[in-house]
Amino acid sequence: MSERKDKIMEKISESLENGATALGPAVLCGYHLLEKAELGSQLVLCTDGLANIGLGSLDGTEDNLKEASEFYRKLGVEAQ
After folding, report:
1. 30 and 45 Cβ atoms separated by less than 8 Å
2. Is 11 part of a structural domain of the chain?
3. Which of 5, 47, 51, 72 would you label with 21, given CA atoms 20 to 30 Å apart?
């Protein structure tokens, strides 16, 4: 197990930020996949930066930030 963890951590360390991060769509897609999964299943999402494009983008105007915050809040409440 420790060997696998070390390999995963090495790959993560080698990752470089490149381009836009569409976190909202990724979270929403993962959430819907979990709806059909066994009880107790988890979604692990790794990102290389700020959600800055698409649904849930945190990059932009104050109104966009409020809208994104509400999107993530509602999704979190529903997921619980």
Report:
1. yes
2. no
3. 5
What CA–CA distance (Å, rounded) separates 50 from 53? 9
Question: Per the structure block, which two tokens stand in for 1?
Answer: 């197990």
Amino acid at 70: E
| Max CA separation in the chain (angstroms) | 46
Q: How many domains does the chain have?
A: 1
Q: Where are the alpha helices (DSSP H) in the chain?
A: 2-14, 23-34, 62-79
Q: CA-to-CA distance for 63 and 80, rounded, in angstroms?
A: 26
φ, ψ for residue 7, nearest 5 deg: -65, -40
Domain limits at 54? 18-79
Q: What is the pLDDT along the chain (80 residues), one digit of tens a residue?
A: 688 889 988 888 887 777 888 999 999 999 999 988 998 888 888 887 789 998 999 888 898 899 999 999 999 898 88
Would 9 be classed as within a structural domain?
no
